[in-house]
């Protein structure tokens, strides 16, 4: 063979061998990269989700996630930030470190949530604080979002082969961010559901306690009415019965004494009627049923132990249970003001309609009190129970030397 031809053949063989070796090495590198990517994605899809479902702490799972990313792509650092209350907070990082929270406005959150995996140049424009204290190196930022809502960011850094970081990691980052977004959203919904369940339990417990107190209060009220009837009107009626018998006996034998007893009988009848009216007024004021809140509260302000005024212009009629709840709460508020406001104080009662709600206020300019040092007494508990029974609420505001304000609201369903 011609020496030149032999040299050419040897050269071609060397080129083919080099190409084969390069192809093998490239395929091996590609398989390693693909294997690493699949490893990170599989962790997000399987191990992460499975441990989350079994109740593993979210903080531990997120730390495992960034550790898996760092090991997969031989990173200098991997971080996961969570977005809440208009700020980004570093939740998990490998290696360990600390960074200050980053404020992020709702418009910027929307932009970040819809962005793709981006570089440091993107962060410099939209989140420059994310680059504070970072040396110049390749950086990739992947938004973690769900339904257009930003839940967090995945940030990775790598100096070695930094020019290859985007090609190596972007596809995996996008997939991992999607899986983490689903998990974070599920955890958010689970937490919201748990809070709702706890609130419902607390409301149910308070409702049961309120019903118990109402039943006890009703029993006590019946006993009070029984005592008042026995000690008041019944005694008057017994005395009347005795005196009527005496009048009958003395009518022929001692007319003068009979006339005297008849005068006493008339006085006793009047006293018995007053006693029954007072008792009926305590059960349900006649003015409230006939004239509504305006007339009933006007009379209540006149009877109050401190100077009181009423503002209730234009207030119409409401269901009896609503009017009774508001009336007795206002009366209780006036009684409390009379007990605690001090000498020289005055009170004002306001009742008005607003947005299908009946609202009222009882305010005094007396001594006031420090709310943190005041326990909820029986009066306030009774008011809360009364209003709670018709779907209303009540609140109190006071301070030493600044008087006390009592507010209440009841839905009217107009």
Explained architecture:
The chain is of the alpha+beta class and 414 residues long. Among the domains are: 35-194, 2-Layer Sandwich (Beta-Lactamase), CATH 3.30.450.40; 287-411, Histidine kinase-like ATPase, C-terminal domain (Heat Shock Protein 90, 2-Layer Sandwich). It has helices at residues 3-53, 58-73, 106-113, 120-126, 165-253, 255-283, 286-303, 320-340, 378-389, and strands spanning 77-84, 87-94, 102-103, 138-146, 149-158, 308-311, 347-354, 357-364, 393-398, 404-411. The strands form two sheets. Strands 3-2-1-5-4 form a five-stranded antiparallel β-sheet. Helix 1 (3-53) packs parallel to helix 5, helix 5 (165-253) packs antiparallel against helix 6 and helix 8 (320-340) runs antiparallel to helix 9 (378-389). It is rod-shaped and about 170 Å long. The relative contact order is 0.06.
Shape: rod-shaped
Number of H- or I-type helical stretches: 9
What would CATH call the class of the domain at 35-194?
Alpha Beta
Beta-strand percentage range: 15-25%
Order of helices and strands: HHEEEHHEEHHHEHEEHEE
The CATH homologous superfamily of the domain at 35-194:
GAF domain
Question: What fold name goes in the CATH topology slot of the domain at 35-194?
Answer: Beta-Lactamase
Q: Could you report the average pLDDT, rounded to the nearest whole number?
A: 80
CATH architecture of the domain at 35-194: 2-Layer Sandwich
Structural class: alpha+beta
Helix percent reads 55-70%
Low-confidence stretches: 18-37
> How many beta-strand elements?
10
Spatial order of strands in the largest sheet: 3-2-1-5-4
Distance between the termini: 110 Å
């Amino acid at each position: 063979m011609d020496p030149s031809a032999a040299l050419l053949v040897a050269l071609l063989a060397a080129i083919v061998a080099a190409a084969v070796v390069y192809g093998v090495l490239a395929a091996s590198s590609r398989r390693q990269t693909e294997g690493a990517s699949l490893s990170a994605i599989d962790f997000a899809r399987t191990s992460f989700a499975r441990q989350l479902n079994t109740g593993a702490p979210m903080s531990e799972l997120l730390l495992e996630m960034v550790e898996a990313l760092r090991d997969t792509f031989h990173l200098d650092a991997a971080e996961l930030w969570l977005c809440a209350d208009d700020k980004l907070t570093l939740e998990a990082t490998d290696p360990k470190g600390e960074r200050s929270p980053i404020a992020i406005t709702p418009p910027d959150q929307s932009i970040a949530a819809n962005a793709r995996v981006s570089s440091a140049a993107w962060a410099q424009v939209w989140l420059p604080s994310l680059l504070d204290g970072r040396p110049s190196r390749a950086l990739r930022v992947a938004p973690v979002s769900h339904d257009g809502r930003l839940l967090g960011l995945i940030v990775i850094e790598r100096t070695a082969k930094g020019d290859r970081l985007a090609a190596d990691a972007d596809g995996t980052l996008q997939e991992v961010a999607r899986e983490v977004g689903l998990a974070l959203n599920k955890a958010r919904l689970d937490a919201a559901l748990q809070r709702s369940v706890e609130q419902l339990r607390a409301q149910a417990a308070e409702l049961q306690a309120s019903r118990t107190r109402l039943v006890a209060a009703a029993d006590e009220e019946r006993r009070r009415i029984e005592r008042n009837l026995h000690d008041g009107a019944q005694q008057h009626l017994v005395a009347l019965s005795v005196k009527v018998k005496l009048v009958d006996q003395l009518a022929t034998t001692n007319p003068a004494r009979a006339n005297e007893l008849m005068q006493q009988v008339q006085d006793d009848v009047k006293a018995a009627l007053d006693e029954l009216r007072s008792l009926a007024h305590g059960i349900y004021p006649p003015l409230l049923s006939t004239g509504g809140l305006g007339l009933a509260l006007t009379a209540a302000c006149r009877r109050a132990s401190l100077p009181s005024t009423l503002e209730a212009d234009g207030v119409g009629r409401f269901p009896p249970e609503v009017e009774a709840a508001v009336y007795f709460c206002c009366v209780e508020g006036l009684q409390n003001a009379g007990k605690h406001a001090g000498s020289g104080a005055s009170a004002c009662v306001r009742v008005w309609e607003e947005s299908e709600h009946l609202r009222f206020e009882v305010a005094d300019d007396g001594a006031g009190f420090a709310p943190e040092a005041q326990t909820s007494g029986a009066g306030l508990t009774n008011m809360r129970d009364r209003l709670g029974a018709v779907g209303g609420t009540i609140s109190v505001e006071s301070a030493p030397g600044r008087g006390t304000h009592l507010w209440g609201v009841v839905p009217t369903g107009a």
